[in-house]
Design goal:
By secondary structure, the chain is mainly alpha-helical. The protein is built from 14 helices and 5 strands. Helix content is about 55%, strand content about 10%. The chain is elongated, with a radius of gyration of 22 Å. It binds tryptophan (TRP). The site of tryptophan has 13 residues, from strand 1, helix 7 and strand 4.
């Protein structure tokens, strides 16, 4: 079974990225042949700073390795190291009906959030289809927000096969359950564009301050809180605590005499512990950037071995070769 997923290097990775994309991907590395890439071509639709793109790309690699991606099991690479993605994207764009892209929610959402309505942003799903089809991926673990893009991928594969003969295999989306429930500091979905994130590897003091700043309701410390499971802080605790630790916090809130300040302090402690081993691995990686670059170079070579012949098959099918 071949598994494929991508993550954009468009900012510092946060806890929403971790629980939504990175952790499930790392868990899957034992279950098949996994290919994970840093979608730097895609990041060009929202980030226009070359230095930042270079920096974020390397940071994603470092953070992924720190969090447990094992390059002996999973292939980690940078999308633009495999330029065949772009050629296939062009090929697919020529059989892609405009209406298919016009129906994509993500384009409309991004434009309404202020991203410029350019062709790259519009064609984003076609590049994503190329990413998926070029590895003949069986499984594409994605968050619900990407469901439509995987459907577009299936449509494009079908259309290409009908036009030029059987060439591509249809991928199955695999939705990461729970991925959409990572709540940010303001109660909305955690997302860079809402400025409500908690970084995975933020500095201690800044992170404590950020977590202590979560706005809660105005009940006093003494009051019992029968709806203890509902607030923002406990929802974050749920991800970084064991079941017992979580239950313990819920009960303390319900009993009364335990305030939101206490809860948020505990949230920080649990968060800090949860990411401690990854933080230590990350420190080591930061002192060994040559290793990180080597992982990406090796990954690109392995990825290209798969991507090149599939792209060539498409070139032959449509008469480019
Ligand atoms: N669009 C995805 C996101 O923003 C990233 C991505 C690009 C991707 N290409 C992909 C994910 C191919 C899965 C498969 O989350």
């Amino acid at each position: 079974m071949r598994i494929l997923s991508g993550i954009q290097p468009s900012g510092i990775l946060h806890v929403g990225n971790y629980f939504g994309m990175m952790r499930p991907s790392i868990q899957l590395q034992d279950q098949g042949e996994a290919f994970y890439f840093i979608a730097d071509y895609h990041s060009m639709t929202s980030l226009y700073d070359a230095t930042q793109r270079r920096e974020y790309t390397r940071q994603v690699a470092i953070d992924f390795l720190a969090c447990g991606l094992d390059p002996k099991k999973a292939v980690l690479f940078k999308q633009s190291d495999v330029p065949e993605h772009v050629e296939l994207s062009w090929i697919l764009s020529t059989i892609c009906p405009m209406g298919l892209l016009e129906r994509c929610h993500s384009y409309k959402d991004k434009v309404s959030k202020g991203l410029s309505a350019n062709h790259g942003l519009f064609a984003y799903p076609v590049l994503m289809a190329a990413d998926i089809l070029i590895y003949e991926a069986d499984r594409v673990p994605v968050g619900r927000d990407q469901k439509q893009h995987v459907e577009v991928t299936r449509d494009l594969a079908l259309k290409f096969n009908q036009t030029y003969g059987e060439t591509f295999k249809l991928p199955e989306p695999q939705f990461r359950e729970g991925a959409e429930t990572i709540i940010g500091l303001d109660g909305q979905k955690m997302s860079k564009s809402y400025n409500n994130t908690v970084e995975i590897f933020g500095a201690e003091k800044a992170t404590r301050k950020r977590l202590m700043g979560i706005v809660m309701d105005s009940r006093t410390r003494e009051e019992p809180k029968p709806d203890a499971e509902e607030n923002r802080a406990i929802q974050l605790i749920k991800h970084v605590a064991s079941a017992e630790q979580y239950q313990d916090e819920v009960e303390k809130l319900k009993a009364g005499g335990y305030g939101y300040g206490d809860l948020k302090k505990r949230l920080f402690e649990l968060y800090w512990e949860y990411f401690r081993p990854a933080r230590e691995r990350r420190e080591a990686l930061l002192n060994n950037l040559d290793y990180v670059d080597q992982v990406l170079a090796d990954g690109a070579e392995k990825a290209r071995e798969i991507a090149r012949p599939v792209n060539q098959r498409a070139r032959v099918a449509c008469g480019l070769a």
